[in-house]
Amino acid sequence: MNAAPVLCERTGCPVAQTGKCALKHDPVELCPHFGKTPHGTQDGGDVEKTTPQRTAPSAVRIASGEAMEWTDLEAFSRAHRVRTVSVIGEPRSGKTTLIAALYASLCRGPVGDHDFVGSRTLLGFARRHHMALLNSDRKSPKTPRTSRDDPTAFLHLALRPRSGGTVSQLIVSDRSGEAYQAARQDTTLIEELRELRLADRACFVLNAAKLTNPERQAAYGRQFKQMIYALRDNGAFRDDVAIEVLATKIDTTRRPDRAAECAAILDEYEAQIVAEFGAAGIEFGFHRVCALPKTHLETGYLGLGETLARWTAPVHLPDVAQPAVKDASRQIDRLLAKVTA
Ligand SMILES: Nc1nc2c(ncn2[C@@H]2O[C@H](COP(=O)(O)OP(=O)(O)OP(=O)(O)O)[C@@H](O)[C@H]2O)c(=O)[nH]1
Ligand SMILES: [Mg+2]
User: Fold this and answer.
1) Where are the residues of the annotated region Disordered (predicted)?
2) 191 phi and psi angles, rounded to 5 deg
3) Where do the structural domains in the chain lie, given as residue ranges?
4) pLDDT at res. 90
5) Mean residue pLDDT across the chain
6) Is the dihedral of CA 15, 16, 18, 19 positive or negative?
7) Is 303 in the pocket of ligand 1 (CB under 6 A)?
8) CB within 8 A of 185, min separation 6: which ones?
9) For 251-298, how does the pLDDT look when each residue is reduced to its tens digit (9 = 90+)?
10) Given pLDDT bands bounded at 50, 70 and 90, which one contains residue 44?
């Protein structure tokens, strides 16, 4: 009587008898153990082969085009020198719309001094842009909430300055505002905001619509400052992080009946936080942007080119030159003092 053929190198696998793979591969040929014997022979043959066993070629990873998650970003930043910006703000402040607007503007041509060169996350951008701007079933464009359960998304842009210079690999993180709001209220949650430790630049998005709303102005202005203090003072960032405040939804402040009043509120708030944070040793820039001019169309898209210019600006390396020693006793120090004088 012929022995049952050996179809699998795993002892006890019933594939030869039942046609079913013990590891549940379907079709069974997909199983890496199928067609091998424990001795390395193929197709159940009992003659030991002298040729080396065929190994499956290592898998080639193809980028899906979706927004990157942590593991993708780690692999990407090993191969590229990246600039990372964390976009931070309360829920519905306009973070995702800002990111979508940068992408959409680059699709139309250069933005400020930058040409679009490429992106690993085109699908991630397109999804955000579609929901923010193109959904024709809505009366007006509306970006869906980024869910608190969504992992932090990292979006990539390769940008070339038109004035010359190397291509910048920009990574922008997009996370739910609820996560930032929760961390402001309970600072033990700050350590979960891992993307902030990566950031070369922290961009705090200020909702100008809320700030210029007389009913919400006081509470919102206070909460916005609390967010910056809470994150910065609890070690969310690296020491050398650049901080900026980006007042968005500027179109909502330009309605002719309230334009002058709103501009004054914004200017006053800017002066107040520059003075307050300056006294606390926090340096930052205050900028204005409109990412979706739906309330006052005449405002148009505002400040996007400047935003990209700041986000890709070269990092200034610290000055490591030794200060000159006055009346030094060593010849070498006297020489250095002459050179640096
Ligand atoms: N008028 C106006 N509306 C804007 C602007 N930017 C965003 N919005 C609107 O503000 C709402 C919230 O925008 P999002 O980009 O989803 O805000 P978010 O900060 O990502 O919100 P979460 O994901 O919930 O944290 C959406 O309805 C946008 O259409 C703007 O520049 N002008
Ligand atoms: Mg969002």
Assistant:
1) 34-55
2) -65, -20
3) 1-50, 70-312
4) 95
5) 86
6) positive
7) no
8) none
9) 999 999 999 999 999 999 999 999 999 888 888 899 999 999 988 888
10) very low
